């Protein structure tokens, strides 16, 4: 771990080097797509995970959030499932906004996640196993949602990774590229 002064200098140097960056909106297909991720037990003190999601409209981010989960997840699958729940709630809200403004009239919104076990848990027909039967009903509500569907995305293509964990330079630059953030010359 870095001393606070070293970490603060790095953050300030990063901000100075990226102050001309902007989100670039290009031609859009008008599709609302979500990406969600979590780290598992990322906080060394209380072992709670961090959830994050990003929603894009036409490829550019329009909504994002990162937050520490309220309870300790017993597995990475459970942490990702809790992140999917938060992303689903945001998707339902954004769908209502899109309907109001006549944007993205598709039947369902896609949410991409990099944990296949969590995606499997979203299915109404998935069986409760010893390792998952304790998951609270508050997270299972997403099984009954017909307005969203879930798809696997490899971690390298999951733009929400930037919200949940420190990334090396190459992964960070890739996430910035996926977010359509460009520097101004």
Please give the domain count. 1
Low-confidence stretches: none
**Beta strand count:** 7
N→C terminal distance: 34 Å
Q: What percent of residues adopt helix (DSSP H or I)?
A: 25-40%
CATH fold annotation:
Nucleotidyltransferase, domain 5
* Rg result: 17 Å
CATH architecture: 2-Layer Sandwich
State the helix count.
Answer: 6
> Overall pLDDT, averaged?
84
Inertia-based shape: globular
What is the structure about, briefly put?
With 185 residues, the protein is an alpha/beta fold.
Tell me about this structure:
- By secondary structure, the protein is α/β, with parallel strands linked by helices.
- It has one domain: Ribonuclease H-like superfamily/Ribonuclease H (Nucleotidyltransferase, domain 5).
- Helix content is 35%, strand content 21%.
- The chain is built from 6 helices and 7 strands; from the N terminus they run αββββαβααβααβ.
- Strands 4-3-2-5-6 form a 5-stranded mixed beta sheet. It has a two-stranded antiparallel ribbon with strand order 1-7.
- The two termini are 34 Å apart.
- The relative contact order is 0.19.
- The mean pLDDT is 84.
Sequence-ordered SSE layout with sheet pairings:
Elements: H1 4-18, E1 22-23, E2 32-38, E3 50-57, E4 60-68, H2 76-100, E5 109-113, H3 116-121, H4 137-140, E6 148-152, H5 161-164, H6 169-178, E7 181-182
Parallel strand pairs: 2-5, 5-6
Antiparallel strand pairs: 1-7, 2-3, 3-4
């Amino acid at each position: 771990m870095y001393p606070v002064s070293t970490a603060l200098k790095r953050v300030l140097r990063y901000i100075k080097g990226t102050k001309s960056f902007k989100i670039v909106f290009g031609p859009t297909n008008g599709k609302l797509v979500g990406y969600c991720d979590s780290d598992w037990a990322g906080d060394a003190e209380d072992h709670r995970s961090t959830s994050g999601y990003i929603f894009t409209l036409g490829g550019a981010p329009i909504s994002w959030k990162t937050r520490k989960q309220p309870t300790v997840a017993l597995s990475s699958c459970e942490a990702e499932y809790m992140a999917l729940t938060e992303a689903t709630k945001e998707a339902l809200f954004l769908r209502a906004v899109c309907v109001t403004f006549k944007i993205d009239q598709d039947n369902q919104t896609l949410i991409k996640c990099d944990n296949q076990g969590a995606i499997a848990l979203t299915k109404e027909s998935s069986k409760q196993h010893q390792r998952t039967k304790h998951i609270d009903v508050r997270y299972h509500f997403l099984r009954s949602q017909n307005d969203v569907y879930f798809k696997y995305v490899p971690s390298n293509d999951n733009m929400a990774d930037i919200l949940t964990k420190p990334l090396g330079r190459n992964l960070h630059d890739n996430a910035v590229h996926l977010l359509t953030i460009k520097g101004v010359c």
